[in-house]
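Notebook entry, structure prediction.
Reason for the run: the old model in the group folder had no record of what sequence produced it. Starting over properly, with the input documented here first.
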Amino acid sequence: MVENIHDQIEELKRKKVILSELDATGIVLRKVVDTIDTMYDFIREKYRITHSSSYKVPIDKTFKVKEKVFQFNLFIASMKLTILINFFQNQIFIEGLLELPLDKYKNALRLAKPNAPAIGYQIIKTAFPESYYKNVTLGKKSYKNEQLHSYKFVTNGGENSTSVPLAFVFAFADPFSKPYEGEIDPELGQSRINSFQDHIFRRSGVEEYTEKELNDVRQRLIRILGSLNRKSKSTEDSDPEDGEEGNDLEDQDEDEQSGVYSKSFDLDILEDIQT
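New structure, fully documented this time:
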């Protein structure tokens, strides 16, 4: 297809020499040929840059944490026996930077087809806490430090009053347990975004990805963040006595809509993650 377009443009350029440079028709046609040639060169270079730019997935620094949440003493009078029960909360820090509930993270991988857009989609939908998505957009690929600092004024009492980019949410020291508390570290926020993207591709089984592949993933992430916020707002605005839930297929992954879940994702890889 590309070669065919190139050949046609070259043919137009060869025929351009016979066009008059004196009459209006010849001048316009020569200009049209030159414009088409310039546009073709621009599009071809844009395509080359998009497909040649690549990102390498770094060494995996993901680790798991088993934290005791609380302890419960159960006394059985008839047996004069006290049973000590410990309750644990398992967390995972993907790429060593982004905290998520481990069980929900595992469930996200079970639900996702083993391709990058589906994995990113399910991790956000299934494993993200509300503080990671409420009034949050994916935003731009990168931000200057002062740009992220400018969002500080919209946070109030640990919540954001208007939409903020995900890099801003991740710019705080502990966005999982203490969202919007403390000082902003723009570089940390950007690092967490980049690491999240790397992790998505890592779980899809690739070691390198292109700009186009990244854009495909970002489009899916934008979609699910928007859907979660629409659902959140709908829930807040609805009458709790209605007892009705929306049936919004727009927020569903294609595999969910068809009722097909991945049987091929290898969850054994999680066993190799250090604790």
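Summary: Strands lie at 54-56, 63-76, 81-94, 98-101, 136-137, 155-156, 159-160, 164-165, 208-210.
The old model has been moved to the deprecated folder.
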